[in-house]
Amino acid sequence: MTSCAIVWFRNDLRLNDNPALHEAVEAGHAILPVYVLDDEAAGAWRMGGASRWWLHHSLTALAADFFSRGATMVFRRGDAAKIIPELAAETGAKAVYAARAFEPAIRETDRRVDAALKAAGVAFHRLLSMSLFAPERITNKAGGNYGVYTPFSKACFEAGVSEEILPAPERLDRVPAASERLEDFGLLPKKPDWAGGLRAEWEPGEAGAQKRLKTFLAGPVKQYDETRNLPGVAGTSKLSPHVHFGEISPRAVFTAASRAGGGKGVQTFLKELFWREFSIYLLWHNPTLPDAPMKENFAQFPWAADRAALQAWQKGRTGYPIVDAGMRELWQTGWMHNRVRMIVASFLVKHLLIPWQEGEKWFWDCLAEADLAANAASWQWVAGCGADAAPYFRVFNPVLQGQKFDADGAYVRRYVPEIAGLPDEFIHAPWTSPKNVLTNARVTLGETYPLPIVDLMEGRDRALRAYESIKG
Fold this sequence. Notes:
Rossmann fold, Serine Threonine Protein Phosphatase 5, Tetratricopeptide repeat, 3 domains, single chain, mainly alpha, DNA Cyclobutane Dipyrimidine Photolyase, subunit A, domain 3
């Protein structure tokens, strides 16, 4: 009789190049694919709305892929540390296979699962699946940890990425087990339905990930070094939600890109994949990364408590078009262009002096790809309190950034249509427009579009004073 094994899916929602699934099949087990929604373990970092929407559709796609191969996916809600051992007992499973996790809460759950399974004589196999490298593998020459990205990325290039892509199983035997209905998880928005923009933009699931990668490698990657900073053009991969949920492995992306013909665009893209690795690395070695500044002196930073300014930023009503366009893109599509992410983050923590944790929490709820490591590391980088952080005196001017990277205003006009009629020369600073230009464009500042909520020079000076106060 064929033995049974549980394949416990987390953020590895795919059949191709899935080490946990592949190892279980190769061991000759009948497979029970399982997903457990464990909100309690996540605590404050329970998935946000956009991520939950994506998860629903990704799991729907994965379950259909399993069904087409003869297997039935099981869904459960609750404490994974109890559910996984219980399922193993119910099915007589001899082993549980899962992807290695890097988030502190999931690591703790894994420890509890491991202890329970060991007590029952069930093996627990965790395999590298959600990153290119095990975080403990990359060390400096002294055997210590890297705190700066550039030498870390060089070490990653030197270590090399395996090009072995594991095939998806063609046929699987069904293991009977009770399952909850995915529809009852409540992952989709109720009234009002705010997910129309996400539905229009994305195709969650492994097939959607493969299409997105193919489109990127067929063209945009060749000019990626130049176009990745231009939000008005389709110059980025937009693979981040697919990679975050593991609908495509980072190894498959890296390998396919490496074979795309070389060139500066490809090399720059590969380095971006190593930025993701660096974030995972930082979280692994700094479990408090999402909550506390890495630089201790920032605990004394004189942040401002300005709820009105925070809400204006969240709603894309700051009066600075490139900032507002980014925040509206985020709300509408669950994603934001990377260059614009830096601009809106700098504006929040420096011009408005609002704690980076507030921005981190908003992104967590609104990003379809909300990733604990990348989100925390990126916000700390912008705020100046993280690893290899941006210098405190680097304060992005949103007007100059808009004029440089969205010169024709295509991005702003897409997401801030109420000022679309302004000429290019005024689109990033509407308050500088002559009255007749505003009238012709049907723009009434303070009514149809807000006046700036902060003076850029005053905000910059205030930020510099605040940063100087903690230098010691």
